[in-house]
Design brief:
One of its GO terms (biological process) is pyrroloquinoline quinone biosynthetic process. This protein is 34% helix and 14% strand. The protein is α/β, with parallel strands linked by helices. The structure holds iron/sulfur cluster and FE2/S2 (inorganic) cluster. Iron/sulfur cluster binds next to α11 and α12.
């Protein structure tokens, strides 16, 4: 298919998914159902080439993520490479596998920031939700990070099974000494979509959360920044997903596939390019996948005639595809979408208590 490139600025950030391997089994995992096997992961030299290309393209922030990036023994080498090129390097981790020695080494090689995931406020709930004995190790990891002087962000995915612990989660992040706490209601992509019925918060939980977060944000101002990401199914307008398709950030999967957003493998109609065959610059500027929903020409009449299109960019393409089968549809979360009834029906369904289907460690390709 001939692609007519849409004008684009250089990317600011790259999410480098070094591996899909992970010691946790979170039911809300937004990684694809089919994970990339260890044998399919790019080598150290291939990743270094990707990082070099990203920097040449303009990327300033490299988020080393996964799966669990600490599962890659070459993580320090990749951190050093990105840092020597002038990138700000952030580690997105479960904390499992982080020792004082490994942390010191990563810091020496230029790692600038850590994002640590937390599942709940106490060990019992946390380990249940992670599907692994992880809580105590996260506490140790947080202590090590704080002791090192590195800035720490704590990331928590919120859902029906932990909203009741929200106050305790904020206190925990405060005790950990987090500089920033991100409380993000679950987005239903990848594995998480399997568990939507069990994870969807109730309207009561959300109504309780908002004043609590507001009060805690005020109390902790100047000590810990709190970011609260709303549960978008309950909102009248969609989120400005990725601040627009192919606008600011790119994701590189463990096998070299380059994604306009971390969940983009969900869009079965999207033809992905791979950095082992095409340069990152060509993929960013010229590929069909990055140009598919860039700008406004792809938008439905509903979005194209709407004065919010510069604010939310028509919402989320992955969500549009997963809920309607058409990635170019107006995000059905939007109250102006002719398909909002899809979301309303999901919200109106009785809240039963299906068992969580835990993320399986199996790799299927
Ligand atoms: Fe956003 Fe489109 Fe809804 Fe307008 S119609 S608010 S641009 S999703
Ligand atoms: Fe892919 Fe929103 S998650 S565009």
């Amino acid at each position: 298919m001939d692609v007519i490139p849409v004008a684009a600025e250089p990317p600011l950030g790259m999410l480098a998914e070094l591996t899909h391997r992970c010691p946790l089994h979170c039911s809300y995992c937004s990684n694809p159902i089919e994970l990339i096997a260890r044998e399919g992961e790019m080598s150290t030299e291939q990743w270094k080439s990707v990082i070099t290309q990203a920097r040449e393209l303009g990327v300033l922030q490299v988020h080393m993520s996964g799966g669990e990036p600490l599962a890659r023994p070459d993580l320090p080498e990749l951190v050093q490479h990105a840092s020597e090129l002038g990138c700000y390097v952030n580690l997105v981790t479960s904390g499992l596998g982080l020792t004082a020695e490994r942390l010191d080494d990563l810091i020496e090689r230029g790692m600038a920031h850590v994002q640590l995931s937390v599942q709940a406020a106490d060990a019992q709930r946390s380990d249940l939700l992670a599907g692994a004995k992880a809580f105590d190790r996260k506490i140790v990891a947080a202590e090590l990070i704080k002791k090192s002087g590195l800035p720490l962000s704590v990331n928590v995915v919120l859902h029906r099974q932990n909203h009741d612990q929200l106050a305790g989660i904020i206190k925990l992040a405060e005790r950990m000494g987090a500089d920033r706490l991100e409380l993000a209601n679950t987005q239903y992509y990848g594995w998480a979509l399997k568990n939507r019925d069990a994870l969807m918060p109730t309207p009561e939980q959300l109504a309780e959360a908002e004043p609590l977060v507001r009060a805690e944000t005020k109390r902790l101002a100047g000590t810990m920044q709190i970011i609260y990401v709303v549960a978008d199914y309950y909102e009248p307008y969609p989120k400005p997903c990725m601040y627009g398709w192919g606008a600011r950030q790119l994701t590189v999967a463990p096998n070299g596939n380059v994604l306009p957003c971390p969940a983009a493998t969900a869009i079965e109609t999207l033809e992905l390019s791979n950095v082992l065959h095409t340069s990152l610059a060509d993929i960013w500027y010229k590929s069909s996948s990055f140009n598919a929903y860039r700008g406004e020409d792809w938008m439905s009449d509903t979005c194209r005639s709407c004065d919010r299109r510069g604010q939310d960019y028509g919402g989320c393409r992955c969500q549009a595809f997963l809920l309607t089968g058409d990635a170019a549809a107006t995000d059905p979360v939007c109250s102006k979408s002719p398909q909002r009834d899809i979301v309303d029906l999901i919200l109106a369904a009785p809240r039963t208590s299906p068992a969580l289907v835990m993320r399986k460690p199996t790799v299927t390709r």
